[in-house]
Amino acid sequence: MAFFTGSQPMQWTGNVFIGALAGRSLWRLVFEGEREVGRERLLVSLG
Length: 47
Hints:
Radius of gyration: 11 Å
Oligomer: single chain
Mean pLDDT: 88
Helix content: under 10%
């Protein structure tokens, strides 16, 4: 798990990234305060 603190891309700032070996993907979680408001599964096509 990693917190993105960079400035580019700006929409990722403050997001959390979690790798899932069993699911073979990378998840981006979007938070507002302490509440998760969105998630995106990345790199799915790479398996």
